[in-house]
Each structure stands twice: as structure tokens, then as C-alpha cells.
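Extended Data, panel c. Modelled sequence:
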Amino acid sequence: MKRTDKLWLAAVLLAALALWGCPKKEPPAEGEKQKRYYEREVGKNPIQAPTDYLYVVTVRAPRHAKEVVFLADLNNQIKQFWGLNSRYPESLKELEEWRGAPVPQLPKGLGYDYNPQTGELKAVEVPLEDE
């Protein structure tokens, strides 16, 4: 086979691939949990292990630590409020006034969900505003 024939064949194959295109990603099913905007898969490819490690240490771990520490502190404050007042705070605003400090900001993409009947506080995903 001549060199020009090989180049022609390669050009035809590349043209066919370009016309065929890439498959479109389907939106996740309703019951399927969506990943947080900052998460990506790690541990799938050993070649990417160093970058996966850096990603987990610099992105995931600090965000998770902030979330856990802020929730633990606020849940402790809610229990103290209940111990002194025999009721849970009506809102996080009332808790802010009682503790004398603002409620800490969770990392981007997360927000607080507070139930005043049970005193349960948890972090939930919130939609991101377009910047």
C-alpha cells in the first residue's frame, strides 16, 4: 500500500469520525443523586493518582471539614438554646441573635436547612447563581 493511500484512508476515517460526532450526555434520572458541582470521580485511573490526591487534599477535604465543623457548632448552639429556653429557635436568625454572632457561611453550593419543630440542622445543596 502506498503512502498516499494510507494518508487518504486516515483522512476518510477522521472525516467520518468528525461527522459522526460525540454522544450527548443525558440528564440524570430524577431518583439519581447529582454530584456536587465541585466533585469529580477519583480513583478510577492509577495514572491520575497524583492529581486525584491533590484534588482531594485541596478541594474536597477543606470543604467537607468546614461543613462538618460549622454544622457541629451550630447543632451544639441549638441544643444549648433548647436547654435554656425549653424550645428550639424559630429560625436561624433567632439563633444568630441569641449567640451574638452571624451563622457561618457554608462553602459555595451549600446552604442550611433548619427544622424549628425538631431542631434539626443540615447542609443541603443549593442552586448556584450564574456569575
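DSSP finds three helices and two strands in the chain. This feature is highlighted in the accompanying rendering.
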